[in-house]
Amino acid sequence: MSLELEGLRFSYGREDFNLYLPSLTIQPGETVALVGPSGSGKTTLLNLIAGILVSEHGSIHLSGLELSALSARQRRRQRLTGIGMIFQSFELLDYLDVSDNILLQARLAPGKKITPELEARAQNIAAELGLADKWHRRVTALSQGERQRVAACRALLLDPPLVLADEPTGNLDPENKQAVLDLLIELCKRDHRILLTVTHDHSLLPSFDRVLDMAELLREVGSGA
Amino acid sequence: MKQLLYLSLQYVRYHRIKLLVLTFAITLVSWLPIAIQSIVDQATEELLDRADRTPLVIGAPGSPLELSLGSLYFRSRTSTTLPYAEVAALEKTGLARAIPLYYRFRVQDYPVVGTSPDYFEYRDLKIAMGRQVAILGEAVIGAKVANTMGLGVGDQIVTSSESVFDLAGVYPLKMPVVGVLAPAFSPDDEAVFVDVKTSWVIQGLGHGHQELNRSEALGQILRREDDNIIANASVRQYNEITVDNLDSFHFHANNADNPISAIIPVPNDNKSAALLLGQYQEERQDVQIVRSQRVIGELLNTVFTVRDYIVVGVALVAIATAIVALLVFYLSLQSRDGERYTLARIGAGRFQVRVLMAAEIVTVLVVSAVLTSLLVLATRRYGMALMQELLLT
What we know:
The complex is a heterodimer.
Chain A: E1 3-11, E2 18-26, E3 31-35, H1 42-50, E4 57-62, E5 65-66, H2 72-81, E6 83-87, H3 98-102, H4 104-108, H5 116-128, H6 144-156, E7 162-166, H7 174-190, E8 194-198, E9 210-213, H8 214-220
Parallel strand pairs in A: 3-8, 3-9, 6-7, 7-8
Antiparallel strand pairs in A: 1-2, 1-4, 4-5
Helix pairs in contact in A: 6-7
Chain B: H1 2-14, H2 16-53, E1 56-59, H3 64-73, E2 82-83, H4 85-93, E3 96-107, E4 110-115, H5 118-122, E5 127-130, E6 139-141, H6 143-149, E7 156-158, E8 174-181, E9 192-195, H7 196-203, E10 206-207, E11 221-225, E12 228-231, E13 250-251, E14 259-260, E15 262-267, H8 270-283, E16 288-291, H9 292-335, H10 337-346, H11 350-392
Parallel strand pairs in B: 4-9, 6-8
Antiparallel strand pairs in B: 1-15, 1-16, 2-14, 3-4, 3-15, 5-8, 6-9, 7-8, 10-13, 11-12
Helix pairs in contact in B: 1-11, 2-9, 2-11, 3-9
C-alpha cells in the first residue's frame, strides 16, 4: 500500500520550471510534510500524484497500481475513490449542508450508493472530528476550523489509502491549525493511510513522521524550479 | 444520475429566490403574447358569432356601437330609447318580425331584459327548470345568474334601485323566479328576462295600489275631480306583483308611447332584410338601423390594432428579459467557477459537472414552460370572460 514515485519529470512548457524527481517512496501509515519556497513545485507534485496533471516521464505507483498509466477517466475515478484531497480553501459547496458535503465524493463516484452504512460511517468520522452536532448545518454557518474538518471528513469517507493535503491549515487560526492537523494525522495513522501534506508552517513539522524539503529534494538530483 | 439530480435540487433550493424571480419573469413574458392572442381570438369568435346571428338592430339615433353592444350583449346602459310603437311599425312593413328589448335595469350586476317570448325562440334558449314567463312580474333567469346567485325556481329577485334619494325615481321590484334557462354560453346566461311590460313597472310607468273605489279606502282619498280620484300619501303601492294584486296593476300612459332600448328585426328572408335596411336608412331619420357585423367588425379592428401594439411592446420586454436572463445565467456560471474547479479536482467527470451547472438553467426553463402552459390553459378557460369585462364594460 505504499506510494512510489520513480524518475518523475514534468514541466509547464516554460524554461523556468522543470520538475524532476528520481525516486520517492512513502510507506503506509507514514505522514509526510512537503515544505519549500513558493514555486518550488510542491503543489505540482501533489497534482501529479492525484492525476490532475500528467507527468512526461516516470511512474507513480500506489498500492501496486500504476497511476501514471491510467486514462483520464480512470484517473478521475481514482481521485474520487482512491485518493482523499484536502485544500487550503476547503473547497466546500455552499449550497450543501455538512452531511451532503461529506458525502459529495461518494455521490459523484460511479457505482457508489449512499447506503445507511456509508452514512453511518460518515457520521462516525464527523463525530471523531467534532462535527456530530453540525450534521445538517449549512457550511456557510461554520467556522473556518469546522469547515476544514468537513473537508477532512469528505477526504477520508471512502477510506482512501492516500490523503493529499495542500496547505490544509493555511486558513486556520493557531489553535485550530494544530487541532485539525493532529486529528488528521491520528485518523490516517490509525487506518494506515499515507498523508502527504504541503505546508509553509514550520511550527507544525514536528507532528509529521518525515519532512521533505522540496528545494533540497530537487537539488539533490540536480534539477528543480 | 439520481445523485446528480439530488445535488442539482439542493442547488435550486439554496438559490430559490433568485430562480423564482427569474422563472416568474420568463413565465410572464412568454405567457403574455400567447394570452393576448388567445383572448383576442376567443373574443373575436364570440363577438362575431353573436353579431352573425343578429345581423340587424334598430334603435334610437346615437352611437351604433352602443346600440350593438346593448342589444347583443346587454352591456350598454344608454338612456336613449325609442317608443314601443316602433315594434308595431316594423311588423306593419311585413318584412320582419320584431323582438323588443329593454335593458335599462339590473338585478345586482345582471341586466334585466324586458322582451317578448319570441326572443327565446330566436336565440334558441331552452328552459332547464320551471316554465316561461306567464304573467306580469315574473322572471326567467340565465344559467350563470342562477349559478352565481344560488337561485332556482320559487326564489325571488329584487331589481336594483337607480337612485336612493330620488322620490320620482325607480324603486326595487320583487319578482319570483319561474324558470331557469339551460346554459347557452352567451350573454343570455348572464341576464334576467322579464316581459317588456314588467320593465315598465320597474320604471314606474305601470303600478298597482289599493283599490280607491272601495268603501274602506275613504280615508285615503284627498278629493274627487270628475272621474278622477286624487289619493293622499297613505295609499299603499305594491313593490311586488302577486296573483292577488295583479289586477290592480295598470299603465296610465298608452303602451305604444312607453320606451324600449332596441328592436331586433327578424327578416323573413335575405331580400326582406335588404329591403328593410334600405327602407329604414332612406326613410327614417328618427330611428337608426345598424348592421351588427359591420359595427362589431370595426370594434374588432380597433382591438386588433391595440393587440398588435401590445404584442410588439411585450415582445420588446421579452427580448429584454431574455437578455437579462442570459446575463444572470452567465454571471451565475461565472460565480460557480470555484465549484467547477473543486468538482474537477475531486474527480467529477465533465458530464457530471455540466449537469450540475445546467441544473439551474434547465430548472428555470422547464418550470417556466410548465407555468406558461398552465396559464395559457387558464387563459383559454377564463380569458373570454376577462376580455368581455375589459372590452364591453
